[in-house]
Every structure is written in C-alpha cells, then in structure tokens.
Backbone:
C-alpha cells in the first residue's frame, strides 16, 4: 500500500505531496524533510529503494525533481519504480517536456483534465 507520494526539488522544496494515511501537519513536514535528506544524499550507485522507519521509500530522480513513494516493506519495488516512470511519461506527454515550473504553476490543469478523462472512461 502506498503511504504517501512526494515530488521534491534538489533543495528540498516539496512541489507535490499526497498522503494516503492520516498525519498531522507537523508530522508531514518532518517526513518530507527526512525523506529529502534520505534520497538527496544517497550515492547514485546504490539502488533506488531505501528503508524508512517501518516502511520503504522508492524514489527516482528526473532532472531536478525527486519522485518518492513510501510503501509497505513487502511491496514490489520494481512495480513502483515503473509507476513512477509512467507518471513522469504522462506528465511529459501532457506538458510537452515537463519541468518543475509546470508542476508549480499548472499542475491543477493536468489533474482536473485527467480526472475528467478518467470519468469518461468509466
């Protein structure tokens, strides 16, 4: 199960956060800080999976953004890496070469339009 999804830049600024478990705001900020420190300082030679508290974080860096998922310890890491890649491909297709500023200023457009498309399929 996915606990949360974070998109953060190299400086640690969270550009998107979605939590699927209830957390207080102070705990959310603490988690975001800890995850950023965990992934940004990791050697690129290591895997993109790292233990975090009683869960694990699967992350991938695209340009200046880190896409991080926190999942249960028994979940399949490669499936989640593929999910991250698919999400980036969708963003890239929608924004025509997505960048951090697209996410900051136009992300609501992508979410609203994609949700509308999904509703049409149902």
Residues:
């Amino acid at each position: 199960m996915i606990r949360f999804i974070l998109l953060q830049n190299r400086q640690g600024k969270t550009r998107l956060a979605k939590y699927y478990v209830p957390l207080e705001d102070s705990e959310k900020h603490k988690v975001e800080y800890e995850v950023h420190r965990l992934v940004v300082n990791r050697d690129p030679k290591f895997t993109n999976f790292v233990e975090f508290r009683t869960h694990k974080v699967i992350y991938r860096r695209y340009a200046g953004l880190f896409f991080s998922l926190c999942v249960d310890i028994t979940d399949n890491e490669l499936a989640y890496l593929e999910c991250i890649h698919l999400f980036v491909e969708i963003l890239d297709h929608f924004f025509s070469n997505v960048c951090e500023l697209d996410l900051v200023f136009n992300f609501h457009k992508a979410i609203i339009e994609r949700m509308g498309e999904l509703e049409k399929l149902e």
About this structure: The beta strands are 2-9, 14-19, 49-52, 55-62, 65-71. Confidence is low (pLDDT under 50) at residues 114-119. The radius of gyration is 15 Å.
